[in-house]
Amino acid sequence: MPQNGTRGEGAMIQLPEAEVLRALKKFKRLAKQDLLASAHTSNPDFWRSQAEARRATYDQLMAWVENEGVEAAYRKAVNEHAALPLLASAEDSPEVTGKRQALEMFFTILGVTQPPEHAGGQEGQNGQALVAEASS
Prior knowledge:
0% strand, mainly alpha, disordered C terminus, disordered N terminus, single chain
């Protein structure tokens, strides 16, 4: 299959910019709904901060896509994800968990299950797979 552009991180993103932006806007709206619902949870401050972090990350991703294109946004998102603590834990701040969730949703939108530098790195020290779930 012919490729245009450079391989960069080893993945060529084939989705049109408009489709990626549409998906990011939908997820930003979901984060806003979560923000509004956060007051009705057992830990409203945590869930409000987490939803705000997701919304801010979606805004950042949309700006990158609009200004630099999908491939460049993907590369920046990989770098942002790599800068997060390597393993998700219950002690992560709501801002870290929100940003992680938004970046990982962006990778899902693009059809990339996880960034290349974290492939295989989602296991704890004892080899068990980590599962990050939100509970309210």
